[in-house]
Design a protein that fits this description.
globular; five-stranded antiparallel β-sheet; binds adenosine monophosphate; 20% helix; binds zinc ion
Length: 120
C-alpha cells in the first residue's frame, strides 16, 4: 500500500471504480477515460511502481494478470473467437515517461471494440 497512489486507493475501496473482477491478487475495472469502446485495467493488489521493478517473485502474478485479459475481453464482448471473426483486443503495459505511464502502479490495459480507435 502506497498512501498517495490512486490505484492503491481503488484496491482498498476508498476511491470508487467500475469493478469487473477481483481475486486475492488483483482487481480489474473500467478505465475512467476509455481510449476504446472497451477499456479495462488489470491491477495487482500489491503496489509495484512499474513493470521494470518486477522481479522473480512477481513472475507468477504477471502471468496471471496477462492470462486474465482474454477472459475479461470475452466477458466484455470483445473476445477473440478465431481469425475469421472480427473480435479481439489489445493488451498494453506502459512503463515510465518514455512509455507514457501516468499512474505509477503496475497495470495492464485491455482495449477492444469496433474500430477506429487510437490507443495511447
Ligand atoms: P497509464 O498511462 O498506463 O499509466 O494509464 C493510466 C490509466 O489510468 C489511464 O488510462 C487513465 O485514464 C486511468 N485512470 C486514472 N485514474 C483512474 C481512475 N480513478 N479510475 C479508472 N481509471 C483511471
Ligand atoms: Zn499503488
Amino acid at each position: 500500500m502506497n498512501g498517495s497512489c490512486i490505484f492503491c486507493k481503488i484496491v482498498d475501496g476508498s476511491i470508487p471504480s467500475k469493478q469487473v473482477y477481483e481475486d486475492t491478487e488483483m482487481i480489474a475495472f473500467h478505465d475512467i477515460h476509455p481510449a476504446a469502446p472497451v477499456h479495462l485495467l488489470i491491477v495487482p493488489k500489491v503496489h509495484i511502481d512499474t513493470l521494470a521493478e518486477c522481479e522473480t517473485q512477481h513472475h507468477g502474478l504477471l502471468g496471471k494478470m496477462l492470462a486474465l485479459a482474454p477472459r475479461l475481453a470475452r466477458e466484455a464482448g470483445v473476445g477473440y473467437e478465431g481469425r475469421e471473426a472480427p473480435g479481439g483486443f489489445k493488451t498494453m503495459i506502459n512503463t515510465g515517461p518514455g512509455g507514457g505511464q501516468e499512474v505509477y502502479h503496475l497495470h495492464v490495459h485491455v482495449l477492444g471494440g469496433p474500430r477506429p480507435w487510437a490507443p495511447r
